[in-house]
Amino acid sequence: MTASASRLPGSRLDGVDILRGLAILTVLLNHVNMRLFLAKIPYTAGLPDQLVATVFWSGQMGVQIFFAVSGFLITSTSLRRWGSLSRLGPGAFYRLRFARIAPLLIAVLLVLSTLHAAGLKDFVVSDRTGGLGRALLAALTFHVNWLEATRGYLPGNWDILWSLSVEEMFYLFFPLTRWLRGKGLILLLCVFIVLGPVARSVFSQGNEVWHEYSYLGGMDAIALGCLTAIGLSGRALSRQVVRWAGVVGAALLTFSLGFSNLAYARGLGASGLDMTVVAIGTCLVITAAAQSQWTAPRILLPVTRLGQRSYEIYLTHMFVVFGLFGLFKSPVTVLFIATILISALLGEAVARFYSEPVNRWLRKGRGQVVAHF
Questions:
Q1: DSSP characters for 350-370?
Q2: What is the C-alpha separation between 131 and 112, in angstroms, rounded?
Q3: Contact 263, 277 (CB under 8 A)
C-alpha cells in the first residue's frame, strides 16, 4: 500500500494548505496595495517593476490557485464519499455545500447591509450599481461578477464575492456529473479548460471585469482540479513521476508569479493562457502533495494555518483592510504586516467560534465529511 493510499479519508494535505496559504497572501497584499494605489501613495517608487508585480499585483493568480484547489477538493471528497461521481447524491451534496459556504456568507452580508445603512464610507452600495437590494440579490444568486461587468464595481467587501459567484455556479451544476460516464465527463471538463483562456481574451471584448471575473474564465482552473482528482483516484504514481510533478508544478508557479511581466510580453496575458499556466502548475503541485503525503516543516506552519482558514480570511479581510487604512497609511510596511496578522487572527476566530461550529451543526446526523468540502 502506498503512502497516499494509506491516508485517512478527510485528512488534510499540507501541500494543498500551503498553496491556499500562498493564494490568500497574494490576495491580502494585492488589496492593501490597491488601496494605496487608489490613494496615489507612491510607495513602490524605485522598486523593480517585476518585484512590484510579483509581490503586490498577484491577487488574480492567487484566486486562480484557489479555483484549482477547490476543484480538486470537491471532486476528491465526492469520490471518497460516494465511491464514484455517478453515485453522487445531489441533495446531500447541496446540503454540504450550504453548510460550508452559507453561514459565513450570510453573516458577512448582514454586516455589510448594516454598514451600508449606517452610511459608512467604503461600504455604501451606489444607486448606479443598483443599490443594496440589487447587490444582495447578486451575492445570494452568485452573479456579482455579472452585475459588476454591466453596472460597475461594487465596494471592496462586495467585490471579492465575484470569485464565490464563479465557484458556486460551477458546483450548482456539479451533481449533473452523475449522468455522465467516463469519457463524457472528461470531454466536458476539457471543454471548460479550452474555453477558459478564450473567455479571458476573446469573449471579454475589452471589458476589464469580464477579463478577470467571467464564469468561464475561472472554470478552467476548477475543471483542471476536478480532472486531477479523477486522475489520481485509486492510482499510485511512481516516486519519479511524483517528484517531477512537484518540480514542474513549482517551476510553473514560480514562472507565473516571478516572471509575470515576461509572460505577458510573450503574449500569455493577452491570450489568457497565463492563468491556465497557473492552474496547471497548481494541479501538478497538488498531485505531488496528494501522492507523497508531504509534511510541511514547522517553519511553514503560519502559511499552512493561513491556508486552513483561507475561506474565513477571504470573506472577512476587507474589513481589516479598510479599517487599518482608515487609521494610518504609513509606514506602509507596518500596514501590510498588520493587515496580514489581524486578518489571520480574525479568520481564525471566525472559523473557530462561528463557521466551523455552525458547519458541524448543519451536518449533524448526515455523516462525517471533511471541513473543507
A1: HIIIIIHHHHHHHHTTS----
A2: 12
A3: yes
